[in-house]
Amino acid sequence: MDLPSFIWLWRMAAWSMGFALSAYFLLGISGGWLLSRRLLKDRQPPWVRSLHIVTGITLVTLVLLLLSIGIVGTLGEYGSLGHSPHLIAGITVVLLVALSAWSGSRIHPTRPWARPLHWSVNGTLGLGFAIVTLTGWQVVQKYLPVS
Ligand code: HEM
Ligand code: HEM
User: Which of 39, 66, 127, 147 has its CA 20 to 30 A from that of 87?
Assistant: First the structure.
C-alpha cells in the first residue's frame, strides 16, 4: 500500500478509536451513576441522563466512522474486503453498539426487559471492543516496517 497517502486515514482511525473507548468508559460511569441513584431512590440530577444519551450518540457516530474508514481503507488497498477476522469483529461491534442504543431507548417502566438487555449488550460490547482492538492491532503489524 502507498502508506504515506493513506496515513491520514489510519491516523483518523486511531483517534476515533481512542475517543470511542473513552466514550464507552464514560457511558459505563454515567450508566452506573444512573443505576445507583435509582436503586438508592435518590434524586437524579437531570444532566447525568442527558450526558449518558449524548455520549451514547457520540459512540454510535464514532463506530460508524470507524466502519467506513476500515472499509474504504481496505477497499483502497485490496479492492476487496474480508482479509482477516477483523472484518467480523468490526461488524459485530457496530451491531452491538446499535443494539445497545436501541435497548437503552426502550428503557421504560412498561418494558422491564429493556434494562437487563441494555446491561448484557453493554457487557458483551466491552469484550467486542477488546477483540476488535486486538485483531486491528494484528493487521496493523502487516504495514509496520520490519525492524
Ligand atoms: C450506545 C449508546 C447508549 C445509549 C443511547 C444509551 C441510552 C440509555 C438510556 C436512554 C438509559 C435510560 C436512562 C433512564 O432514563 O434511566 C440508559 C441507562 C443505562 N445505561 Fe445506557 N446507553 C448507551 C450505552 C451504554 C453503555 C456502553 C453502557 C455501559 C458501559 C451503559 C450503561 C447504562 C446503565 C448502567 C444504565 C442504567 C440502567 C438502570 O437504571 O438500571 N449504556 N442508557
Ligand atoms: C470499532 C472499531 C473498529 C471497526 C468497526 C473497524 C472496522 C474495520 C473494517 C470493517 C475493516 C475492513 C476489514 C476487511 O475487510 O478485511 C477494517 C480494516 C482495518 N482496520 Fe479496523 N475497525 C475498528 C478498529 C480498528 C483498530 C482499533 C485498529 C488498529 C489497532 C484497526 C485497524 C485496521 C486495519 C489496519 C485495517 C486494514 C485491514 C487489512 O489490511 O487487512 N481497526 N476495520
Answer: 147
